[in-house]
Amino acid sequence: MTKGDIATDPMAWAQVLRRSVRELSDAGVPGAMRDARLLLAHVLGVARDRVTLILPDPAQPDDVAKFKALITRRCGREPVSHILGTREFYGREFAVSADVLDPRPDTETLIDVALKGAFLRVLDLGTGSGCILLTLLAENPDAVGVGSDLSEPALNMARQNGKALGAGERCRFINSDWFGNVEGQFDLIVSNPPYITANEMAALEPEVLRFEPHMALSPGGDGLGAYRAITGGVMGHLSPGGRLVVEIGPAQGQAVTGLFHNAGLQNVKTIPDIDGRDRVVIGSRP
Fold first, then answer.
1. pLDDT tens string 182-218
2. How many domains would you assign to the chain?
3. Which CATH number does the domain housing residue 118 bear?
4. Same domain as 148, residue 222
5. Contact 114, 247 (CB under 8 A)
6. Domain that holds residue 47
7. ∠ CA(111), CA(89), CA(169), 5° rounding?
8. Which residues 6+ apart lie within 8 Å of 53 measured at CB?
9. What percent of the chain is predicted at pLDDT more than 90?
């Protein structure tokens, strides 16, 4: 290795961090400083808000090598959440991998909407990591729930998260194509289904297109296939007065509210996210 190599020069973490940020920026990674600090905190086992305090410290070669390996993965556009193995959602940490869709801040709007009404039994269709169902159960200790998904690896991840969050006894996860294997009725049915159109897939960021499961991103075609399946079967599983709450793409409000109305749901509303974009559709059974 040369004298200037990041892994052999004795230097402070501040210098290592600057070089890594430059490397990430050159690779086209958005938020290079943020990501570098997150990865450094992970390597050193410190809280993210403590990174500034260790920057003057000398960087030990073994730690620099570990940090460099993670920076290289991020330069390949692997998501930080996959590198760390966790993603924060609604104030809690969830285990994630390439088998599940990453929990996103936009989906917290769905949680906020669902929590505005009472429920004791909740069904999460296409549960993925289980973040929606498990968050609702954590916020409502009296509730029980079921999460369904077609992917067995995703269901295993959801079970892992349920156990870690202490909700394992109040929920179960089943393999089901939407309502196919679901039994019983629920006060609340929620879903963040795949809704990206086939034409939109190619424009996704590399972190999404290359590292997240396509079956959780797009149903193909016009992106509405999942909503048709959900609204087509919802009346058989929604208790009288119960609510259906789904996440949508920003341009899908009119189409999805139409499907809700056609299914016989009432009090149908489209609710924006924090950025003012249509994000959630809600309706109730008469």
1. 999 999 999 999 999 999 999 999 999 999 999 999 9
2. 2
3. 3.40.50.150
4. yes
5. no
6. 13-76
7. 75
8. none
9. 95
